From TrEMBL:
Upper classification of the organism: Bacteria, Bacillati, Actinomycetota, Actinomycetes, Propionibacteriales
Pfam families reported for this sequence: Cupin_2
Domain Cupin type-2: 61-109
Designated name of the protein: Cupin domain-containing protein
Gene3D superfamilies the record matches: Jelly Rolls (2.60.120.10)
């Protein structure tokens, strides 16, 4: 068995959002983990939509909220807010935004193609 490690403090890649934050990405073999730092004022439809080129986020996110809060609104109108300690799954077809004045930090396994130019 082969093992590999990489510190999130030295990510393989950092993907800046249009404004209000970035996604640090580490890929080990076929496993990709992102640490998203979503600053106050961040909103997918303003900060990532121009990068993704889709009407709503079409990535399936699976992750854990480390700090801050984020509301996710799905294309069908359902909304959920995640906060510290929450494990979440967000299926494709959503917008999202930071709630409050604290950055939202999420660890996310669904970021292999997230915030990469289309």
């Amino acid at each position: 068995m082969t093992s590999a490690t990489q510190s999130m403090d030295s990510p393989h890649e950092t993907r800046p959002f249009r404004a209000h934050g970035h996604m640090d990405v580490v890929t080990l073999g076929d496993f990709t983990l992102g640490r998203g730092v979503f600053e106050p004022g961040w909103r997918w439809s303003e900060d990532v939509k121009p990068i993704a080129g889709t009407d709503s986020c079409q990535v399936r996110h699976t992750g854990f909220c480390v700090s801050g809060q984020m509301t996710i609104r799905f294309d069908d109108g359902e909304e959920v807010t995640v906060g510290p300690g929450d494990v979440m799954v967000a299926e494709p077809g959503h917008d999202a935004w930071v709630v409050g004045d604290e950055p939202c930090v999420l660890l996310d396994t669904g970021v292999a193609a997230y915030a990469k130019p289309a």
